[in-house]
Amino acid sequence: MESKAHSGVFHLLPLGLRVQNKLEALIDTHMQAIGASKTSLSSITTEALWRQSGRYSSNSELLRIKDRRDSGFLLSPTHEEEITALVASMVHSYKDLPLRLYQTGRKYRDERRPRGGLLRAKEFMMKDLYTFDSDSAAALETYEAVRAAYTAIFDALKVPYLVADADSGNMGGKLSHEYHFVSPKGEDTIWCCDSCNYVANEELATKRATNVDEEEDDSYPLVFRGISTDRSTEILIYVPASRSLSSEETPGWESISSYVNLHAVKRALPNDLHLDTGIEASTLSHLLSSATAPTQTISILDPSLSIAPDSSPPPSDPNPTPELTLTSPHPLTPLHPSDPCPICPKGSLDPKKSIEIAHSFHLATRYTHPLNACLSLPPASASPRAPRTPLQMTCHGIGLTRLIAALAALLHDAHGLNWPRALAPWEAVVLPSAGVAAADAEAVYDELAGGGVDVVLDDRPGKALGWKMRDAEGIGYGVVVVMGRGWAGGGREVEVQCRRLGVRRGVGVEGLGGEVGALLERL
Amino acid sequence: MESKAHSGVFHLLPLGLRVQNKLEALIDTHMQAIGASKTSLSSITTEALWRQSGRYSSNSELLRIKDRRDSGFLLSPTHEEEITALVASMVHSYKDLPLRLYQTGRKYRDERRPRGGLLRAKEFMMKDLYTFDSDSAAALETYEAVRAAYTAIFDALKVPYLVADADSGNMGGKLSHEYHFVSPKGEDTIWCCDSCNYVANEELATKRATNVDEEEDDSYPLVFRGISTDRSTEILIYVPASRSLSSEETPGWESISSYVNLHAVKRALPNDLHLDTGIEASTLSHLLSSATAPTQTISILDPSLSIAPDSSPPPSDPNPTPELTLTSPHPLTPLHPSDPCPICPKGSLDPKKSIEIAHSFHLATRYTHPLNACLSLPPASASPRAPRTPLQMTCHGIGLTRLIAALAALLHDAHGLNWPRALAPWEAVVLPSAGVAAADAEAVYDELAGGGVDVVLDDRPGKALGWKMRDAEGIGYGVVVVMGRGWAGGGREVEVQCRRLGVRRGVGVEGLGGEVGALLERL
């Protein structure tokens, strides 16, 4: 299906391209149903535009292009900047809204360690949809319309998937969802409640805060002293210690992630302040005790610690440092399997390895503001001084390459690949044995093709039936129709095989269309 | 249709993408007719592979990718190396041949001066087909099959084009053809005979050698002294001077291109020897007179100079330099309009500005040899010592982006674009005026769609008929069907417009399908 050319770089062979084209067509159908127009943006963008949006420095996976003038071109890993600049130049009236533009194209990423074949490659295929609305309520309506379209797309694959609440992270914005296949090959972890429909990704997952009543009397707070990435602030993190830890063995900075959910800390901190999690203990200790030590302190408390710990400066200090104490709304201790669900009273959480195949973000004005994609309000509310308002944006990606690789990994068995009907390179294949007349093979093909089945006839000369059957198993057609002994003996009966459903049954030509159709319905 | 994002970098908007998709579908039809399979190769390739083929150093238009490891990745301007490496790894039997693989994808080129919009951009869309055969005769059959497919593709556009003999240049190989649209916006020049079907590009064009009889008695040779790019050889070029030049005014090196057809000199020289045409006169003079002056000399003679000029070394020279004298098979003087055709006795040559839209090369073993795409011969001829033979390769490109830009430039008029039927975003548009009932507009649409016309209904609310008509003229649909006064007055007559054919005529609904179909046949 694909061939590895270089580390993280792959070619799609003809059958793989057919699978990808089927997926693209399925996506097109549902994008057009929500009025999205298909475009094709350049894969080349510029440093200048990415500096304007403020994303240039924070992205270490950008591939730069060296041209003869060293002009600062980049290969786009995603197109928020370009589409927003395009919309800013072309949309001049609120009558042009809502605007929904998408494309299916190649994206580029400087993977630190390309691995898992097509699951994580330098170059990959994405569908990316960008939407623009005049206000937040309209943008949320759009967000929900896309969610419905994505549900229709993934339902059509008939493979279970999960929709996880996600952190919008450095994409900016407020609302975010991820679509995952559960798979042991996955590099992501999602946490699912075993009782309600709570699903969240690793960054956003949380658990119910333990009531003070449930705490043991002898629980006491553990304190971790950290520093912000900008070195301006000492950050004190207070979490409850478990009973099994004696007060003598205070864990050091290097083991913080065993005792603290750093994602929860991040969300509890003010937006512009980031805990430096990568710093070494010795450097940290030096920074906190040196002459240039931070002049302000923020304390973050686990919600179970009802009494604010004593962290006031000693009375003798002539320059008391400015202080702020925040109680995190969510527990700061790490999630463990069977932790209580944050939503329902009875459920407990279960971590699952998964492959992320799609992602939605409500970006609000994260890009439209810096790139000046603005409109004046409609006449009714416009006054001579009406300011221009940035458009409300959402974006929605589906990783075609990764989705195909994930399905190949999920559905294959010892004999070869299996594809959902919607993606199979052909829904069915007809395999005549050497003795079958060409006209008979074509009649069987016509019977299926005439009934609307996307079928192919394997009439390659010089290949034995056994070879063709193994080839067909490897490729993963939905249904294999063998014209073998049952036909050759004059019985004019074909064998219909569907490995994924465990079906293998003799059928006459007159019943073939119905039989194959019924099997395909289930794939 | 498209939007310029940066210098030489463009986005395709929805209508432009529809045009490109129509062209891709047209090409797909004719590629599949010759048994070519569609693939999708990565746009990322490596320096190492390009060094192996020997093309790395000679290509100044390669865009390099800077990744975190400085790994020597490139953006492919063309895919001979990658496809040959792929075929080398996958084809193991002559039974797999002929093999014809193609793709439609983005290519990259570090344009020195991006200009002419999409005619010459950093990123552009190409269809590239690569074929592999076991021997030269089979490769030539393939070459002719592709020529027939290209003829069918370009004929379908119903716009005149020319097929020029071309020089295979640094692609290697022996046989080459270019497909051109004649256009004043073109950057190429092709030379056409006004009497026979001789067409050749600038590099390959030649004229009939003037007979000695026709020479004036007082013609005498002009000599230009040059040097090879590797500095090994002095190159003397002898061309006849015109009568108007007195023997006192001998033209210098800097004006050589006014007196000498340098393409013809290149072809007359041995393959591994290249005249340094870019060298400055002072540098050249220094190099030829210095102590390290070339130790060998090649003289290239225009065919009209029947007597070898006296260039033997003076007898006093103790170390005579090795010498070679070659008579060029083609005239070495530059081509001028009305020069005699090299093929037919009566025709004269006419230079035309043109846009190259496609190119075919018989590459032979130029890439299969260095990249080791080889096969053992079939059993009949195999002996225990049968050597592995490199496959015979041809390649064939169509520049989709440039072809679309060229057609837009050729067919547009003061009102907007015009497209060939095969590429129009829609073949026809129905424009109802504000007073027309929605059901009536849909009935007219259905009449056309039901007859197989690719039609769109412009029922955008709040847009006046005049606005829609101007919009439709700009877009360049094949046929515009206006439901205006002739309909509103109860006449139930539409106006069928075809700007390119100068047609504008009232038609009843019952005659509409036939009328529109007949117009589309001519587009």
TrEMBL record, chains A, B:
Domain Aminoacyl-transfer RNA synthetases class-II family profile: 1-425
Keyword set includes Ligase: yes
Pfam family, one: tRNA-synt_2b
Domain of life: Eukaryota
Key words, A-Z: Aminoacyl-tRNA synthetase, ATP-binding, Ligase, Nucleotide-binding, Protein biosynthesis
Catalytic activities: tRNA(Pro) + L-proline + ATP = L-prolyl-tRNA(Pro) + AMP + diphosphate
GO-annotated biological processes: prolyl-tRNA aminoacylation
SUPFAM superfamilies: Class II aaRS ABD-related (SSF52954), Class II aaRS and biotin synthetases (SSF55681)
UniProt biased composition (Pro residues): 311-321
GO molecular function terms noted in the UniProt entry: ATP binding; proline-tRNA ligase activity
EC number: 6.1.1.15
GO cellular component: mitochondrion
PROSITE patterns the record matches: AA_TRNA_LIGASE_II
Keyword Nucleotide-binding: yes
Region Disordered: start-end pairs: 303-339
Record PANTHER family: MITOCHONDRIAL RIBOSOME PROTEIN L39/PROLYL-TRNA LIGASE FAMILY MEMBER (PTHR42753), PROLINE--TRNA LIGASE (PTHR42753:SF2)
Family in the record: Belongs to the class-II aminoacyl-tRNA synthetase family.
Name used for this protein in its record: proline--tRNA ligase
The species this protein was found in: Ampelomyces quisqualis (Powdery mildew agent)
